[in-house]
What we know:
With 612 residues, this protein is an alpha+beta fold. Among the domains are: 373-454, Carboxypeptidase-like, regulatory domain (Immunoglobulin-like, Sandwich); 458-611, no CATH class. The strands form 10 sheets. Strands 25, 26, 27, 28, 29, 30, 33, 34 and 35 form a 9-stranded mixed β-sheet that branches. 33% of the residues are buried.
Amino acid sequence: MESKKGQVTIFIIVAILMVAGFAIYFFVVSPIESSSIPSNFQPVYSTFLSCLGDDALLGISLLQTQAGYIYLPDFEPGSEYMPFSSQLSFLGNSIPYWHYVSGNNIPREQVPTKRQMEQQLELFINNKITGCNFDSYYDQGFEVSSVNPVARVQIDDNSVAVNLEMELNVVKDDESMFARTHKVTINSKLGSLYDSALKVYDETRDKMILENYAIDTLRLYAPVDGVNISCSPLIWSADGVFSDLRDGIEANTLALNSKESVDDYFVVDLPVREEVRFVNSKDWPYRVEVTPSEGNLLMVNPVGNQQGLGILGFCYAPYHFVYDLNYPVLVQVYPASGGMDEFFQFPLAVVIENNNPQKSLVASASDDVSVDLCQYKNSPAEIIVIDNEGKSVQADVSYECSDNSCYIGKTSGAFLKGSFPQCVNGFVTARAEGYKDARYLFSSVSQTKLTMTMEKIYDKQIQLKLDGVDYNGNAVIYFTSGDYTQTIVYPDQKVIGLTRGQSDIQVYVYKDSSITLGQSVQEQCVDVPRQGFLGFAGLKEERCFEVEIPEQVVSQVLAGGGKQNYYVLDSELRYSGKLEIDMDELPVPSSVEQLNTNYLLFESNDLEINLV
């Protein structure tokens, strides 16, 4: 899999884009000059046609670089749950996504048709052409006036024809010129590039091409599923995993292309002759979520060291993490000849849900595929957010109903007056830094006021003691209070956020060892349905099979710790600075039997806990 890590840098793509931006001004403008224009007025009319051509060129450039748009569609912001907006910011320009996920997690499409592109270019020319600069001719005594421009545009594969109906009057001395119909033809591949871009978009969405590459990258750069032979927990930093994943996505996306390559893995088979490239930057908006997780840690507890499982004779840590992953890709389509004078680009969002590609949208995907309740906020309500001492809390308030999560606003002091979508048995969620999230049941169709109490989180230093002596070796500490769970990997982490109330605290101390477990064969038996009629009747029979366990070495073993239920008081949290946990040391095991004995002793070991 190492050969599949891309090595292309985004700066090459940016340089190509800049070159293409300058090259567009060298297109050939072919005016259809009118033979009826008097010779002394020809320079003025040529200047006018040049303005018309320049305006058309500029409009074509905007269509090509802004995904077929000159006038961008309405901007839709992202949210804290889905950081994508409806437009991708690239080199200081906003490019509308052809496919994206809205801030309230609804897939959307906004792919322009060719006729819509023509209409936008017509409107652009109508607005620009009256601003043509004739100052040099005014100095020569010419008078130029123009009114009522009406442009008609036709985009073909290799040209763009502009027909402009506009009254143009030019007067000098006793002579005058009048023209109503004006035509220019721009040599541009806008039409063919757009058609190919549309084919690329349909192909990538129908076959989930980018999503399948994303899943490969996910499994290469992040823990997804597997089994490790270990009697100590497997721990990954979520921030580290996400950072590696973003680096991998950027490198592998930039390596994709539609032409022959040294590594065929990166060659994307597309039904177009044009060259296609894919751009991603790790600095663009991303959304990565993983379950199960404990705070900033991905943790897997081993199987085989729990009480009553000593018969297994070994420990193993199976893991299966489920990821939701969203990131943008900018698709660029270049002429088949390899020239860089023109290109067409559009962004789309790659969406992975539960380790699988999001289902492709149907052809009418520009319409919402589900009801967006957040668009219909018509139920006013007042939300009050305070802490457990009655003090105001400045919190971000959201409302969850069905599959929708709508951001309502931020409290000012303790109060927020906002509009909610109508919903029965939705949930109001309040989030604030330094406080435990609060979630209250709220029916916006019948309730108009809600007071929410948030539990303040107090950061405390942790000091472990082993038989009364300060301990700074390896340990894993679990804090569970209702639905609020934290895991501390000691001594790398020595700060815990505590709230008042009952907490279940468990500490596992691990030390180095080298217990060798020889190869063995164990018999496993399961109940299966009987064959024939008896199986249909629900009767079962026992079947047994042998499981071969390879030789393994256990390098980390349980050597201390215990568990304790502890009620944390407000007064302790306010006036203490350190959490001390004293625990019993266990002998470092040198055999499987001693290892199993340690787990049995652990279950009966109590912790001594003090907030000082």
